[in-house]
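Fold this complex.
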Amino acid sequence: MTVSRFLRSPERVARDTATHIQQALQVTGYSPNLQAGSLASGRSQAVAVIVPNIAHSIFADTLHGLGAGLQLAGLHMIVSSTGYSLAQEEQQVRTMLGWAPAAIVLTGRMHLPATQLLLMAAQQRGTPVVEIWDQSPQGEAHAFQQIGFDHARVGALMAQALAERGYLQLVFMDSGVEEDFRAHERAQGFLAKAASLGLEAKHLHAAMGEPVEQGGQCFAAWHAQQGSAQPIRCGMGFANDLLATGALLQAQRLRCRMPKEMGLLGFGDFPVGRYCQGGLSTMHIDGERIGQACAEYISQRLSSHGLSVTDQPSQIVLQPRLLWRGF
Amino acid sequence: MTVSRFLRSPERVARDTATHIQQALQVTGYSPNLQAGSLASGRSQAVAVIVPNIAHSIFADTLHGLGAGLQLAGLHMIVSSTGYSLAQEEQQVRTMLGWAPAAIVLTGRMHLPATQLLLMAAQQRGTPVVEIWDQSPQGEAHAFQQIGFDHARVGALMAQALAERGYLQLVFMDSGVEEDFRAHERAQGFLAKAASLGLEAKHLHAAMGEPVEQGGQCFAAWHAQQGSAQPIRCGMGFANDLLATGALLQAQRLRCRMPKEMGLLGFGDFPVGRYCQGGLSTMHIDGERIGQACAEYISQRLSSHGLSVTDQPSQIVLQPRLLWRGF
DNA sequence: TTGAAAGCGCTAACAG
DNA sequence: CTGTTAGCGCTTTCAA
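Structure:
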């Protein structure tokens, strides 16, 4: 008991005892069992983190920022990925709950009803639940803390930005990943905005598979279909920078005149597009910042016992930044 | 007790009881507490994973493969990063041991003596310890399972490849990260090989900071220093593709004639270099495969109780693949 | 086939 | 300031 006390608040132990203990710790190489600790105290040191794909640069950045922030609070990340499947997500949440995590972080606001119930129950029990990389549009209720942005709005911004550059026809190349809802929302926002601007708009869908390649193929198919029609200044938005990079390379191969007759606008500011010949314009999102903000929220939430579980979850909004390159 | 039994081997419970239990599970939304389970059984479901930086694409890929593989075995990843600091690594290992992990995965074979002792003790107690992304050279003893490759050898391969392409002067741009030992080993291997081929060789060091930018600056400085000397066909190897990308862009700006007078060879096959104008040649490593192999090793090791703890740890070698682009 | 008893390693609460 | 007691939620073992 005294050792336990020494480890969490050394000042509450007598000088001599402290010295003894410290020596014993050295000699035995003791390290406290965190699982036993959590079990006894009811406070877990683990934060459950669920992302669609660890290897995607935006989520990797987010994990980096999140991990760094949590470390400061003495928390650890248990990470798993869903492969953009809500069914997988439910499974993950279910087993993650077995760790009695101090907090749960997941990507996006779309979940299966069963998942939603599990999460609400967890939150009821006092476990903070955070949805990152997304945000419910104004007027839509959200049960959990959100750190992200409104994808439909970002899609609209993309359309508007292209329109302002003078492109008269707009196209959005959507993700081939069926359950990448955030991409689809950007598409909807893009198309709605185009319509409200009175511009002709088209919704392309990349096929599933390696996205750079699919982006190229989808672009080529679209380009071929345009055929000999007189070229109209066309602005194309993309679900992400991988698709956009593939399209950019293909467009160069097809000798499209950019930016005069054709303007491409990606999303995410992935490293892959950053140094492309000609420059890929994109919407930059600070993924690491999302992770940091999430860690800060969790740390604060866990320390401030004053915060009631019934407090309204809020939204932390990260503004995407438009990067024009090669223009 | 019967519920516990039902959950791990339903067939050892009577039909009726099983039905009852299942209903109760549904109604209550019960999920077993993994921490309590580990504590009681002495078997943890957590695997501790320590990488230099979660956001680096090669490690992100590795985590992706590792996570997918471990999931099949019902294991979870607790992930932390060291920022390429051995001191941090020691800290991480120490706290990770508190999870009584089923296995420990860390990056590289270089550790502080204290870390090494902790790991050996853990292995002694039956916890598999795996070093990824590295391999002790032949003749050097290694205490732990290794999944990776000999970096000095890869450095030598890079030098040889450039030499075979006809470059008469060789340069290696090393990482500015002090404790990126694997990069430094590649440098050493590169330079040693160059010497043994009788070629002039130079060792550059990028500064710390954003690697693409530093790569460009370091290249520019080197180029300026070359001055008006008559151009010799020069092959340059890089610690990684980020530095190489920066150098490639700079070389294009400086109108170096590539590949005729200058050949660049990166390392890692990061996405960022994959679609560069002109094409960045590189050594491709399958990071995801390293993660998969690691997961397979751990799963197998945990299931085969037959394997004695005194078994010699082996080495799983992944061959890098040379990718010439833009030649 | 089921359940009772004991204990994993720790911490909360209280007594000295 | 230190130590005792009880118990976190589960599994192991053994008895019924």
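DSSP finds twelve helices and twelve strands in chain B.
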